[in-house]
Amino acid sequence: MSIEEKGNISIHTENIFPIIKKFLYSDNEIFLRELVSNAVDAVQKIKRLAALGQYNGELGNPLVEVAVDEAQKTITISDNGLGMTAEEIKKYINQVAFSGASEFVEKFKDAKDANEIIGKFGLGFYSAFMVADLVEIQTLSYQDGAEPAKWVCDGSTSYEISEGSRTTRGTDIILHINAESEEFLSKFKLEEILDKYGKFLPVPIKFGTTTEQEPDGEDEEGKPKTKDVEVDKIINTTNPIWTKAPADLSDQDYLDFYKQLYPFGEDPLFWIHLNVDYPFNLTGVLYFPKVKNDFDMQRNKIKLFSRQVFITDEVKDIVPEFLMLLHGVIDSPDIPLNVSRSFLQADSNVKKINSYITKKVADKLAELFNKDRKGFEEKWSDIGLFVKYGMVSEEKFYDKAKDFALLTNTKKEHFTIEEYKEKVKDLQTDKNGQVVLIYSNDPAKQDSFIQSANKQDYDVLVMDSPIDNHFINSLEQKLEKTSLKRVDSSVASKLIEKDENLESVLSEEQSKTVKEVFEKAISKPGYNVEIVALNPEELPVTVTMDEFMRRMKDMAAMGGGMGFYGNMPDSYKVAINGNHKLVTRILQTEDADAQAKLAKQAVDLALLAQGMLTGADLTEFVSRSVELI
User: Fold this and answer.
1) Is 452 marked as binding a ligand?
2) How many secondary structure helices (H) and strands (E) does the chain include?
3) Which of 157, 177, 174 is nearest to 165 (CA)?
């Protein structure tokens, strides 16, 4: 047939294509995702019609093919799906996209967020005009008696429909690539995009051919021969594991899939298979990696799919913040996307999915803890950071996790929170009835303080992860009559305030003299000297920072909204053990210089224990130590 029709999309609207190019898609490579996805839909629809008995013709092997012709500067996306009649082209290509074009442009002019408007229009096919200055459709419908049809549009609001040349059921979309987009004529570039977006599409995607070897008889010595054979290059796996039932999968299947997603990653610790069809559809597999202390390195490892089409790895609206540390795949057709599929839209389903995933993760961890506590404890060093992060940031997760979250002491023993409170309550309850949990954030550096606490029969926890400052505050808010103190925040006998106090061997006058000697020896602002009555076996001098002030400064350093404290000058408490023999020796020394030297040496030892003695002060201390030997 000759040209059947010429027409204009709308004579009332300005050209919509510049708007598509400028605002609809942030990344022009996704034209291929859109067109391949449409082709896959067409193939799946013909299979569905055949299954329902509404199509009795030969189905053939379902296939979508992407081909590039560098000489002609074309990219062709072909399928053997439904195909279209000329009338359907008008309906699906012209009307759907442009029936609201005038309204679109009108609304767009005043819109603050173009994505909100774009999402209401079926413009996916027109992403082709981001890279092409002419788009041609050749199609033949599955319907009996259908004639092939051709549609051509040059990116203006004009189109032509005429007799097509296709002889088999399906559709070819032919893009005549514009001068600015010739990078997409590279086979390597196209394969990279197909691998990114189409790796798990449910219909085989052919992109060129590849050479394989097949048996070719035997040679003269009877050894098997092979020959090279050219076969279709299929770039995708059509049935990824998240589409299968967990009962049909082995542990090795899950590990192999993880390697497919993250070829250079360490094996995960365990995983969760998601599968729900009410009140929303969601499938996927989430893996627990060995969590490193560098949060940023862990993020954006969950890939979001919609019907096996890759959408994005920016899933922060679907997955709670703390679960961003997980890896894996989520696939849901119910996640609301605008037509560019690049932005999530606010929707109640997103909140439901968020809550569902949180619950599934908590349930999985509880199951592992209850089934195999020893195995769970062995994994704790790898997942503790993640669990604590969740407890700090998600109230519902805290409620579940408090029963399996573990506290670990310096002896590497593990306890649940309640178990640990029960363990220490007899010896570590202060005069006000508060159970005091003592912790170290650097056991190697704070070893002398830990040993002093152990001499008091106190147990010391290890809290050395980046999230522990926040976790400690969270525990104090949640747990009744419980406080936490860092082991070096005071001398051991003062960490937990008790009614009993040691008597000082010093008179009031002697205490005053000793305080003056030490104040002169320190001669730095921010150091407050006090004389305390301690066990004679304790250290002669201990330098500590107030627990509250130090914690606020630590949080300020982590960006915890405590900037005011971060800017305050450091303030330290210098506790002089009035019952130590060094103090007696200082009092018995009449030479003021000798007194000062002894006092300075004791203070420097205390600073050295805290890692606070550096530079010229450290050099002077070493020289003085040699002199005193």
Assistant:
1) no
2) 22, 22
3) 174
Q: How confident is the model at residue 300 (pLDDT cuts 50, 70, 90)?
A: low
pLDDT tens digits for 465-479? 888 888 998 999 999
Q: Are residues 35 and 175 in the same domain?
A: yes
Q: What is the pLDDT of residues 25-68, one digit of tens each?
A: 557 888 898 899 889 989 999 998 988 888 888 999 999 999 99
Q: Is 38 annotated as a binding residue?
A: yes
Distance CA 303, CA 283 (A): 12
Please tell me whether 511 is known to bind a ligand. Answer: no
Question: E strand or H helix at 154, and its extent?
Answer: none
pTM of the model: 0.75
100 is in an annotated binding site: yes
Please identify, among 207, 222, 249, the residue that sits at the C-terminal boundary of a domain.
207
If asked whether residues 118 and 146 sit together in one domain, one would say: yes
pLDDT tens digits, residue range 177-212? Answer: 999 899 999 999 999 999 999 999 999 999 998 988
Identity of the amino acid at 62: P
Range 413-431 average pLDDT: 94
Residues near 61 by beta carbon (within 8 Å), at least 6 away in sequence = 204
99 in a known ligand binding site: yes
Please state, in angstroms and as integers, the Cα–Cα distance from residue 268 to each residue in 282, 310, 377, 457, 591, following that order.
22, 22, 16, 39, 67
How many angstroms separate the Cα of 437 from the Cα of each of 31, 120, 139, 428, 491? Answer: 58, 56, 74, 7, 15
How far apart CA 126 and CA 136 sit, in angstroms, is 12
On the question of pLDDT at 113 being above 60, the answer is no
Residue 270's alpha-carbon distances to 285, 288, 302, 360, 371, in angstroms, are: 10, 6, 15, 13, 14
- Nearest C-alpha neighbor of 569 from the set 544, 549, 547: 549
Please tell me whether 1 is known to bind a ligand.
Answer: no
Look up the domain containing 485 and give its range. 405-495
171 has binding-site annotation? yes
Please say which residue of 146, 181, 207 terminates a domain: 207
